[in-house]
Amino acid sequence: SAEAFDGAGDVSAAGLITTGHPLLGAAVEHAAGQGVTFSGRLGLDRNAWLGDHSVEGRTIFPGTGFVEMAIRAGDQTGHSHLEELTLATPLVLPEHGTVEIQVVVEGGPDTAGAVAPEGAGGGDKGTAPADGSRRCAIYSRPENAPAGTSWTRHATGTLSARRSHPGFDLAPWPPSGAEPIALDGVYERLAATGLLYGPAFQGLRAAWRLGPEVYAEVELAEEARDHTDRFGIHPALLDAALHAIGVDTPHDRVELPFAWEHVDLTATGATSLRVRVRPGAHGTVALDLADTTGRPVASVGSLAVRPVTAEQLAAAARTAPEGALYGVDWEPVPVPASVLASVSVPAPASASDAGQAAPRWAVLSADGGAPETRTPMLPAAVTATSLDDIAEADVVVLLGGTGSDPEAVRRATAHTLHTLQTWLAADRFADATLVVLTHGATDGADDGATDGADDGAGLAAAAVRGLVRTAQLENPGSFLLVDLDGHEDSARLLPYVTTLGHPEVALRAGTVQVPRLARRTEPVADDVQRETVWDADGTVVITGASGTLAGALAHHLVEHHGVRHLLLLSRSGTGVDGLEEAGATVTTVACDVADRTALEHALAAVPAEHPVRAVIHAAGVLADGTTGTLTPEQVDAVLRPKSEAAWHLHELTQEMDLRHFVLFSSIAGITGSQGQANYGAANAHLDALAVYRSARGLPARSLAWGFWAQASGMTGHLDDADRARISSSGIAPLSTEEGLRLFDAALAQGDPVVAPVRMDMAGLRAQGAELAEIFQGLVPARRRGATVTAATHDTVADGSLRGELAALSEKERAERLLALVRAQAASVLGHDSADAVEANRAFREFGFDSLTAVELRNRLNSATGLRLPATLVFDYPTPEILAGYLNDELFGTSASSVVTTGAVAAAGAVGAVGGVV
After folding, report:
1. In 24-33, which positions are buried (b, 16+ CB within 10 angstroms) versus exposed (e)?
2. Which of 89, 275, 789, 852 has the fewest Cβ atoms within 10 Å of its own Cβ atom?
3. Per the domain annotation, does 280 fall within a domain?
4. 668: nearest Cα among 638, 691, 692, 646
5. pLDDT tens for residues 50-88?
6. 246: helix, coil or strand?
7. Which residues, in sequence order, are bridge partners of residue 731?
């Protein structure tokens, strides 16, 4: 816990040694005696005084804090003299949460470096020679970082056991002949350069100059005096001493401590200091620090400072918890050697022998026409044009469609949606599996079997796959996505993969592969600058330009990349304020980019002296609804401005000399997003279009964005419960600053499809066994417990909840089920407690809609092992009524399993899910 690292908690039970230090709460000796690691946590919530140290608008951990940490570590290892400490990277503190800190002190050949427990006296611990030295380094990384997350090194130095005896005396005070320095406005002048000190760091009280030397008095502010006696020298007090450097010399830039040499601490716990600053060689200074009687407290043999820019601090801030680039890797699944030889030929669905071992199969066409001959592995399967023609089957294969043009995409998605809806409504398929089969439609599966990459035939299939991914989330276990290459061994594996339980697989050359999100290495700054060059004389076209994010992007391109000519397209024709003042020439056109003719005219009007050099397609709308309720009109409303417009942009610009062709996609196309099957389809099509263009040597990048924090036309309707639900999925909101940085990084990254997302790793881990497979490469797999009792875990399988309930009385059983329903409903709505969900209040009054209804249904399916309908909360409209229904389904009690019309009416139930979308 956090308390275990604040210097006050007892960490000995974890095998650690308490240090008693406010910043470094615990230490552990390395097993081979080769060093000691000190650890702690830093954050504005636990170290409020740090919030008063701001540089260029960012909260920076003061360099004096690193000195304090190094000296404290040295005290406890018997190496209390800081020979040198060089600061490499500033530590930018996050606004919320904490960062983990480690100070690593290397050991020596004689096992020196053992740590002395608090109160044991560290000065004589260890067997190092009296003049021995030890290397030290200070690191940080974000809190809750996943295993394998790299640490950022902020400082490196050397500690030694050498004892020095400062010979200075600052008793005559102020020194004779010293001239006072006026301090009026000193902190205002520092703020003007970018150094903004709050009250805790405004400790400079008086100053004098005597020749080349400056003398000063500094005092620790009340805001920073907590635990002063546990510091060697408080970082805010030592930092205030540095304010005397050049106090009477004008400054026009920010300078921060860089290299410290020969730092000795003679006395601890000071709250006031006398300071002498002496000039040294090559622009360095030396400092003598004394208490109010003039006796030595500390000395710094040499201190060098160096300038720091806002850009450097922005780069350092990237070590804080933030967004990153992700892509999809296809991982192989082991296939037993005997499988290929033993795979049986599927039997047709019309087979009369009900006792046959082989499952009964049927094949549906992609678009309602005659089934295509693309299933040689299923010679015995029945073919049909509609589910209505299939009376019964164990596995039904739906061919995913082919084609590249908008009509092919629309036709394939419409037919697939209709089939999914029919499937979900048909009781005869309750125990069957619907396999949606595509050919070469995945862009990353090994062996390059993207049959449609060159001719675009896989674009329609990609849209189908995006749609089905959401349907899978809403209806776990009902649908399977399979992508085939042309290899015979792959075809023969199709029956086998229907038994594995994976929601999505690719079959490649007789191997089975499953998709996993994986973090991509971000390009270094030089690569980003080189790869994101924008032609200042060319025109950048931005669609969806009236949107909030498109406006932020336009400013980013003008102010940071020197873009000078913009063509902004949107249905409203609304402009973006401030671009002309920033030096850009802006043309704003009201244009429906899904209208090919209108788009062609807008592009043709671009002057020849400023030809189109980049396209950024950011247009899009939402028309949400669960898979079971979506209408063709809702699907078309989303496809037109996003996927259809993207195809028109592709065709109309493919002969132009473009440097960038950027599609704003969404992670929904990769992972699915409940209530947004149409949106998933459109974005998966954009991703596939980027792969298609890239295969043809055309510039292309599809950015599958996560969730943006800044409200926009597409997210402005979200309330706190919606945002909590999104965060619980493991995707945290991206700030605009993060998003624009990732935009640049993504363009310099080599993949045609990249997902800029801020992952909440703690949220992913919290999902445990319920975590969607696509995310399972990001967090360590949880081992299965040897036993699980339903009393402590709702989501248990194989009837253990049923077993627990069976042992209860009827009254206790009803209470247990009601508690389950209320707890799951509260979680779906983002509440912290089940108390927020009253037993006799209608679900719709809590704000349940078709999306949250499906999520609650899925949670209860998992908890009970039942197969419950999507309309559950509308058929059984209060938690109490629903709990009674669950009891009936689990135990078949005499109570009716159908709520009476009066009960439903009394609860105000909605008759159809679509009524509350």
Report:
1. bbbbbbbeeb
2. 789
3. yes
4. 638
5. 999 988 878 899 999 999 999 999 988 889 899 999 988
6. coil
7. 759
Contact present, 584 and 565 (Cβ < 8 Å):
yes
Shared domain check, 706 and 649: yes
Residues 6+ positions from 182 with CB-CB distance below 8 Å: none
Tokens 């194989």 found at:
798
Q: Please give the span between the terminal C-alpha atoms of the chain, in angstroms, as a whole number.
A: 41
Same domain (yes/no): 227, 347: no
Whether omega for the bond prior to residue 174 falls within 30 degrees of 0, making it cis, is yes
Q: Residue 508 forms beta bridges with which residues?
A: 511
The two tokens of residue 890 are 């689990």
**Pair of tokens at residue 515:** 């998709």
Question: In the predicted model, what is the mean pLDDT of the chain?
Answer: 81
726 domain-assigned: no
Res. 180: pLDDT tops 50:
yes
How many residues appear in the chain? 917
> What confidence score (pLDDT) does residue 148 get?
59
Coil, helix or strand for 907? helix
Within-domain flag for 604: yes
Distance (Å) of CA 146 to CA 143, 781, 839: 9, 12, 39
- Position 381 confidence tier, pLDDT thresholds 50, 70, 90: low
How many other CB atoms are found less than 10 A from the CB of residue 119? 8
DSSP notation for 793-819:
-SS--TTHHHHHHHTS-HHHHHHHHHH
The two three-digit tokens of residue 684, written as one number: 């998966």
**Helices then strands (H, E): number in the chain?**
26, 34
Taking a C-beta distance cutoff of 8 angstroms, is the pair 677, 417 a contact? yes
Measured CA to CA, the distance from residue 862 to residue 881 in angstroms comes to 19
Instruction: Round to whole Å and give the CA distance between 321 and 329.
Output: 23
Predicted confidence at residue 111, as pLDDT, reads: 39
Give the C-alpha separation, 765 to 567, whole Å.
Answer: 44
State how far the Cα of 98 lies from the Cα of 93, in Å rounded to an integer.
8
Which residue among 93, 127, 160 closes a domain? 160
Which pLDDT does position 799 carry in this prediction? Answer: 46
Domain that holds residue 272: 179-317
Give pLDDT, residue 14. Answer: 54
Token digits of residue 453? 């990459």
In b/e form, how buried is each residue of 495-510, taking b as 16+ CB within 10 angstroms?
bbbbeeebbbbbbbeb
Using CB atoms within 10 Å of the CB of residue 236, give its burial: 0 to 12 exposed, 13 to 18 middle, 19+ buried: buried
293-332 pLDDT, tens per residue? 999 999 999 999 887 776 666 666 654 445 689 999 999 9
Per the DSSP assignment, residues forming a β-bridge with 298 are: 265, 289
What is the β-pairing status of strands 360-364 and 17-18? unpaired
Phi, psi (rounded to 5 degrees) for 857 = -60, -45
Q: Is the pLDDT of residue 637 over 90?
A: yes
Task: Name the 3-class secondary structure at 38.
Answer: strand
Share of the chain above pLDDT 90, in %: 45
Task: Give domain status of residue 788, yes or no.
Answer: no
211 exposure class (CB count in 10 Å sphere: 0-12, 13-18, 19+): exposed
Last residue in a domain, options 109, 131, 160:
160
Sign of CA dihedral 637, 638, 641, 647: negative
CA distances to 409, 457, 474, 646, 698 from 689, rounded to whole Å, are 12, 11, 26, 8, 11
pLDDT in tens, 768-826: 778 899 998 887 655 444 433 333 334 333 446 888 888 888 899 999 999 999 999 98
pLDDT digits (tens, 9 = 90+) for 680-704: 999 999 999 999 999 999 999 999 9
3-state secondary structure of 698: coil
